[in-house]
Amino acid sequence: MSLLMPRLDWILGCCTAGGCESHGQTEFQVQLSSEPAPAHGAKHLLTSGDSFDITFTPRLFGTQGLSRASNAPFTPRQRDLRAQLELPSLQTYPVPPNLGPETAEEVRKERLLEMYREFALDLHTGMYLTQLTSNRDYADIHVQLMEDLTTLKLDQSNGRIIEFPLTNVSKVYRIVKNDDKWYAAGTPLPHSSANTEQIVVVEFMRRKLAFVFKELQVSQRFLICMELLIRRAQQKQALRSLTPTFPPQHAQSRQCPTPRLVHDAMTRPIPSPPDNLK
């Protein structure tokens, strides 16, 4: 141990603040922290990404959302889901954002289908959105499309998880909030404001869900794709209601002839004619 002390004194002497003081004792305190340095703009815990959370999907379904974030490859399950997603039957199809009415119809439908599939996959993974509650408060919630692609699951981070069947949606529309005043979509605003909010409302039988967006094109994409999901769910339900679960009763009464029935019919004696016909 005595042989190590001079070497230790020499190391500590080289690390002193003066740099040349080989004698004299200095006390060092090193503080290590695993926390990242504070950023200039603090983020809410719910809206900041977690590198270990595979279910977190940032809100990248805006103007740049026409291509999947970071061009991530599809998993086998995602490929299966994409194969299930086709455009529902509509008389007229909406025009995707960033495309004009002069664009060819085939191109518009192709872009619409791609945008619709990417939105559905992002929603199936789960995304964090801002909800406007009934008492005019803002809440960050986690929204996820379930495996049947017809049910929304909302996690309000308060221990409650609520499921909303898309077949029960009665209406979906967009409104604009500007300086605490409400306007219908497309209404000219008196002046542009940084507080302008695009709100997409999904109405159910007894409840409304209002999602808040800052960008117009983001809200338009959400509205279009959500309406396509709703139409798909309702058309699938209508198709199931038209398909009978059990065959009609008269079809059940008709039995398929078995070999025994055929044999009995052939061996049955033929009745003799009446006497007056002999």
From TrEMBL:
Residues 244-256 have a biased composition (Polar residues). PROSITE patterns: PROKAR_LIPOPROTEIN. Residues 244-278 are annotated as: Disordered. It comes from the Eukaryota. This is Uncharacterized protein.
